[in-house]
Amino acid sequence: MTNNDINHHIQWDSTTDEPFLPVPGFPTLRLTPYREGEQADMVELCNHPLVGRYSYLRPYPYDLSHAQWMYDNIINKNLVPAVSTLRSLRESPLQPNTLPPLVTYPLSVLRYSPSYAISTTSNSNSQSTSTPTINSQSTSISAPQSTSTSTSNPQSDSTSIAPSSKSDLSSLGLKDGAFMGTINIFPAERDPSSDKSIPIPRQDQVWMVAYDIFPILQGRGIGSAVLKVFLEEWCEWMNIRIRAEAQRDNIPSSRILAKAGFVHSKDIVKTWPEEKGGGDRLVGVWDWAPTRQ
């Protein structure tokens, strides 16, 4: 498969002036960049006990200083420039067989956007060209606002909700533009003495994916849909390999990974931070590769 063969669905919101990916099956959800002033939303998400306890690296409790560090050192240094690169690709599409000049994933925020619901079917039909492009879309989305959540497993992909109502989020009381979760990647190879990333050539790099969704969205298949669009519309385009880890007792997350096409490669034992419960835990390692590798 060549770069030209990828059915690339990145859209562009001309109102907020940002790229996004629609989430298949959920016309009111999209993946967008971080926006200014969302530190409090990050704190709320990361401090939920059913989210924070599953993260091995992230501080817990998670406070505003941690969120600000993320903005200063990751978002503003890496993700904002990546959005600028996507903006430039709108004007100058890539030549055939050329990989995008990007080394990170900028569409990291799962956002509720009912003011511009995109039909997955019409989106697929409108993208008939074989050349990757970034399409301009006009929307009326309002400024992002915080939202409160209820308790449930954030990574659950259960079927407790009737199929006909899973995609309808209007009864949840969410606000237009609400921050509903995150999906981020970072290099999988790390120096055990410093826990810093080890520089590796792009073609040999494996990226670790970490995703968190507010528990209020559990039971609808949203986790699977987010992973699906991330893998098929970004990782295939980038031609990058992805790795994920899930505690073996976190059955819903393991099911989501298997459904998304990950293959369970091995189990490892990790000593969990004391503030997250401590103890040695069995963790499954899951790998995914694009079709061009």
UniProtKB/TrEMBL annotation:
<dbReference type="InterPro" id="IPR000182">
    <property type="entry name" value="GNAT_dom"/>
</dbReference>
<dbReference type="InterPro" id="IPR051531">
    <property type="entry name" value="N-acetyltransferase"/>
</dbReference>
<feature type="region of interest" description="Disordered">
    <location>
        <begin position="120"/>
        <end position="169"/>
    </location>
</feature>
<feature type="domain" description="N-acetyltransferase">
    <location>
        <begin position="132"/>
        <end position="292"/>
    </location>
</feature>
<dbReference type="Pfam" id="PF13302">
    <property type="entry name" value="Acetyltransf_3"/>
</dbReference>
<protein>
    <recommendedName>
        <fullName>N-acetyltransferase domain-containing protein</fullName>
    </recommendedName>
</protein>
<dbReference type="InterPro" id="IPR016181">
    <property type="entry name" value="Acyl_CoA_acyltransferase"/>
</dbReference>
<dbReference type="GO" id="GO:0016747">
    <property type="term" value="F:acyltransferase activity, transferring groups other than amino-acyl groups"/>
</dbReference>
